[in-house]
Amino acid sequence: MTETVQRQLGASDSPIEDALEDAFTRMVSEGTQRLHRTWREVFVTGFFGGTEVALGVLAYLAVLSATQRPLVAGLAFSIGFLALLLGRSELFTEGFLVPVVTVAARRAGLGQLLKLWGGTMLANLVGGWLIMWLIIAGFPGLRAQAVESGAHFATAPLSTQSLSLAVLGGMAITLMTRMQHGTDSVPGKIAAAVAAAFLLAGLQLFHSILDSLLIFGALITGKAPFGYLDWLGWFGYTLAGNVVGGLALVTLLRLLRSKDRVREERDAATAS
Questions:
Q1: Distance CA 34, CA 94 (A)
Q2: Which are the contacts of 119, defined by CB distance < 8 A and separation ≥ 6?
Q3: Domain 13-271 has CATH 1.20.1080.10
Q4: Where are the transmembrane segments (predicted)?
Q5: Which long-range contacts (CB under 8 A, 24 or more apart) does 231-237 make?
Q6: pLDDT digits (tens, 9 = 90+) for 69-78
Q7: Which among 79, 113, 161, 191 counts the fewest CB atoms within 10 Å?
């Protein structure tokens, strides 16, 4: 099918299917607003993201401690992703698909992307650490589970397995973003959040922010068999794996799928 025929068959004059056009428009519109936030807005939004994911971690630890079933606890963790979705806060790894598509469309610059990534990541960790301190102080019965869960990640050696889990973690969270921007249905967006939580927390994939909060909880107890330097080493390779999974395996393919539409948006941005 030629591009001309594609345009004629669709409801809009777009080189991609109508459903993809709607998703692309939503992503660029939202991404433009997110990337033009001030430092204060970036940090506050990211801080809320860290606190809300930490509440999901609380649910995860409580259910895991009671059942010793990670898959069931993963479903409980979806509370954190639902809070992100409905509260309109920001998680660092959610910044792969939408902001990168926006920069590719020249609706924002690379510096703004780096500001969003850096500010959100730092704020996620600060907000998450604070809530994990409150959780460990308020729920002493969960301390042993926090140490066990945190150690599972912090003591994992750098290996093909751990890197694979990190790549899959980045892919899963970015896929959640893609699914949520592919529909206007609130139940559909909620289903995507629950599915991603099941994959990430239930299957114990390596996620730089989520699992850092588990590690922080263990460290705050004072009984963890590792320290902050161990966390930092784990965080470094997990972050790299998440970026590869989110950018290379989801975002890049989406850009290739919509390359004609991206080119049109770049031309329009240049002309304006």
A1: 12
A2: 39, 42, 43, 46
A3: yes
A4: 42-63, 116-139, 159-178, 190-220, 232-256
A5: 231/154, 233/158, 234/153, 234/154, 234/156, 235/208, 237/158, 237/162, 237/163, 237/166
A6: 999 999 999 9
A7: 161
Provide the whole-model pTM: 0.90
Inter-residue contact 234 to 207 (CB < 8 Å): no
Segments making up each domain of the chain, as ranges: 13-271
Angle, CA of 155, 93 and 185, to the nearest 5°: 130
| Interacting residues of 185 by C-beta distance below 8 A, sequence separation 6+ | none
Which DSSP string do the residues of 39-57 spell out, in sequence order? HHHHHHHHHHHHHHHHHHH
Which region, left, alpha or beta, applies to residue 14 given φ > 0 means left and ψ of -120 to 50 means alpha? Answer: beta
DSSP one-letter code for 95: G
Name the stretches of the chain with pLDDT < 50: 1-3, 5-9
Classify 237 as helix, strand or coil.
Answer: helix
pLDDT tens column, 103-158: 999 999 999 999 999 999 999 999 999 999 999 999 999 999 999 999 999 999 99
Q: How far apart are CA 88 and CA 74, in angstroms?
A: 21
Amino acid at 98: V
